[in-house]
Amino acid sequence: MTSADQSTPTQPPAKRARRADAERNRAAIIEAAGVVFAERGGTVDVREIARRSGVGMGTLYRHFPTKDDLLATVLEREFTCWLTAAHQAAEATEDPWQALTGFFEQTLTHQARNRAMVESYAATGAPSRACAQYRDAFIDELRTRCLNAGLLRAGVTTADLVLLSTSLSQIVQATDDSHPGQWRRLLRISLDGLRARNTEPLPESDPGPESVRHADAAAND
């Protein structure tokens, strides 16, 4: 037997073409779903996603058997991209307070206009446990930087900052049509309350839901 006979046969061109088509279809579905979920939220009919992506319903369901599967994939991608960009921006900012305020600005201008993301943020805190841990650890870095610099009010926890970003995101979505830009006033008021010059003791915090406890745990890890 020659060496040519012993070599592994190459993959047939038709099979490679089918695989490439499947990858393109999956990418098109995810891209379209990201836009549709951002516009309409998680309750949107998947037929609209199939229409915008240019694939049939059968193709969509082969890649994502349920809408929840597709929503989780899209939200994890969006969440990770958002946090990565926010983390990079914070690391490039020398002033701790500017890094913290920049995070809130970036959150409210980017994430809060994604309806499905805000829904996920309000319901579970994040698309997945891994996403929540990544976010909480990052927010705790910002909190610690400000605290060490003497800029943050005593007693402010990571969970406080997580809940603040969640609530302000919902406010942006609720007021964007009727009072666009109103969130900037509310953000300024909220951030002013976080400054170290406010020395009145804060009320004791309620342990709250599991997502909030995760934030506290991240701060203690």
TrEMBL record:
Residues 23-82 form the HTH tetR-type domain. Pfam families: TetR_C_43, TetR_N. One of its GO terms (molecular function) is transcription cis-regulatory region binding. Keywords: DNA-binding, Transcription, Transcription regulation. The keyword Transcription applies. Residues 45-64 bind DNA. It comes from the Bacteria. Residues 211-221 have a biased composition (Basic and acidic residues). This is DNA-binding transcriptional regulator, AcrR family. Residues 1-22, 197-221 are annotated as: Disordered. The keyword Transcription applies. InterPro entries: Homeodomain-like_sf (IPR009057), HTH-type_TetR-like_transc_reg (IPR050109), HTH_TetR (IPR001647), Tet_transcr_reg_TetR-rel_C_sf (IPR036271), TetR_SbtR-like_C (IPR049445).
